[in-house]
Amino acid sequence: MAKILSIACSTFGNRLAGALEVFSSLSPAAEKVSFVVVHQVPPLFELSKDVQALQSELMNIENIHYILSETEGLTKSRNLALEHCQTKYVWIMDDDITFANNILQPVMERLQTAGSVACHTFESIKPSGQARAAYPKDRAPLCGKGLLKVASFEMIVNKDILIRNKINFREDMGVGGNAIGLGEESVLISDIIRAGEGTMHHKISVLTHPDVSTGNTVSEKNFYSKGVVIRRCFTGSERIFFYLRDVFRIFRNREDHFGAMYSRVKLVKALTKGCFLGE
Predict the structure, then answer these.
(1) How many domains are there within the chain?
(2) Is the same domain home to 55 and 129?
(3) Domain range spanning residue 247?
(4) pLDDT tens-digit profile of 94-116?
(5) Terminal C-alpha separation, the chain
(6) Is the Cα dihedral 176, 181, 185, 187 positive or negative?
(7) Under 8 Å CB-to-CB from 90, ≥6 apart: which residues?
């Protein structure tokens, strides 16, 4: 039976073992999907001997398609993975997750019964067992603040629909040297919605992810990036709403995350620049 789902795992440098652990956490159902690993190793990067040995091992595992790339930047890795996946559906994946037990069957059942949907999102938990975020209702389309909370490893995209609409991850976004260091998932989904294609959330917890997030870092760069994400995702009054929401959150500083008033003003300036003057 032809496979319908690929898992596209991005990894960098000496983190390659993490991708293999992700694959192993699928066992014993790994043969039901294609597993694509994009391993970014810039020209001057020195791999450890263990990772060099692991490269050879991965090339000989039947269910793994290993791609070595000299590129840098996570969104470049995501797009390269999408290009090499040969299935209708592609699950965007990080190298530091653990899949829930026996999760592939319910996920694939949802994909096959949902109709023409360009992006499916699922749910994840922290190591503590707590939900990673507040999620939309089951089978609801993505919009508003729900759109802004999506993590890449919760997304399964319909590659055929993305190709038809010439949509991919914007490569000036995401970790790996870009000025816009986050939010590429939200912007991809917004591009899908603008193209008139469907999205759907599924209330199924599919994996565990470490309790860390680029989006939680307090810095001017991150708030500039948040502003750009708002600019690219929303228009009109909706853009103003999400901008003001973040401004009020910074100045209120309820949990003392944002420092003294001088620091908060700098964060708001960065957010404003991204939202109204950004790329």
Answers:
(1) 2
(2) yes
(3) 217-277
(4) 999 999 999 999 999 999 998 89
(5) 45
(6) negative
(7) 5, 6, 7, 8, 81, 82, 156, 157, 159
